[in-house]
């Protein structure tokens, strides 16, 4: 409900869950406490998704990337809340930033290993990947997380992946 309507009331949330609003208030003192619990659960799920993908570990980079994408698609579908609201909580923001840092380090390592192109602007892969994952999670709901991950991985690597003969040559932009 909160993904569809960030202003949803506790009464509305309780009704949708099939409980009385007093039941919700027994568990959460305020709407802000409920949101904090949701954000906590989401960031914990993200941390677990990264750990399970074995980024920066012994798994081959392409395999780890597929696992990461599949896991994050599942997280996005399970916890479809507006991430910008998560940033208001310093502890949650720090944990989320640590997750981003780990994924960025993995993408740099994947670039160094030749899985991703070196001729892209610094950080481009790290900006592109979450957008593709978000699109797949929310627009391709008819696909399983694994199927959606295959599509994202193929799109990501074909657009950002190194070619058979190495990186394509850099060309200067044409003058108008």
Average of the residue pLDDT scores: 84
- How many domains make up the 3D coordinates? 1
- The number of distinct helices, counting runs of at least 4 residues, comes to 8
What percent of residues are in strands? Answer: under 5%
Secondary-structure element order, as H and E?
HHHHHHHH
CATH H-level superfamily: Tetracycline Repressor, domain 2
Radius of gyration: 19 Å
- Kindly name the structural category: mainly alpha
Overall spatial form: elongated
What is the CATH domain class? Mainly Alpha
Q: Could you name the ranges where pLDDT drops below 50 across 5 or more consecutive residues?
A: 169-176
| Ends distance | 49 Å
Give a verbal description of the structure.
By secondary structure, this protein is mainly α. The protein has a single domain, classed as Tetracycline Repressor, domain 2 (Orthogonal Bundle). The protein is 65% helix and 0% strand. It is built from eight helices and no strands. The radius of gyration is 19 Å and the shape is elongated.
Q: What key attributes describe this structure?
A:
8 helices; 176 residues; Tetracycline Repressor, domain 2; mainly alpha; 65% helix; single chain
Describe how the helices and strands are arranged:
Elements: H1 10-17, H2 21-27, H3 31-53, H4 61-78, H5 83-86, H6 90-112, H7 124-139, H8 145-160
Helix pairs in contact: 1-2, 3-4, 3-6, 4-7, 4-8, 7-8
Quick summary:
This protein has 176 residues and is mostly helical. The chain has eight helices and no strands.
């Amino acid at each position: 409900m909160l993904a569809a309507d960030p202003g949803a009331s506790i009464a509305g949330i309780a009704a949708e869950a099939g409980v009385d609003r007093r039941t919700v208030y027994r568990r959460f003192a305020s709407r802000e406490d409920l949101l904090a619990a949701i954000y906590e659960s989401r960031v914990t799920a993200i941390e677990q998704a990264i750990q399970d993908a074995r980024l920066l570990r012994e798994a081959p980079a392409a395999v780890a990337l597929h696992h990461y994408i599949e896991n994050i698609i599942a997280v996005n579908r399970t916890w479809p809340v507006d991430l910008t609201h998560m940033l208001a909580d310093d502890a949650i923001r720090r944990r989320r930033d640590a997750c981003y840092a780990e994924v960025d380090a993995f993408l740099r390592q994947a670039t160094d290993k030749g899985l991703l192109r070196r001729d892209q602007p610094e950080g481009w892969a790290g900006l592109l990947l979450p957008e593709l994952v978000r699109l797949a999670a929310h627009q391709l709901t008819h696909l399983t997380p694994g199927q959606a991950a295959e599509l994202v991985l193929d799109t990501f690597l074909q657009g950002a992946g190194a070619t058979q003969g190495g990186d394509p040559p850099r060309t200067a932009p044409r003058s108008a």
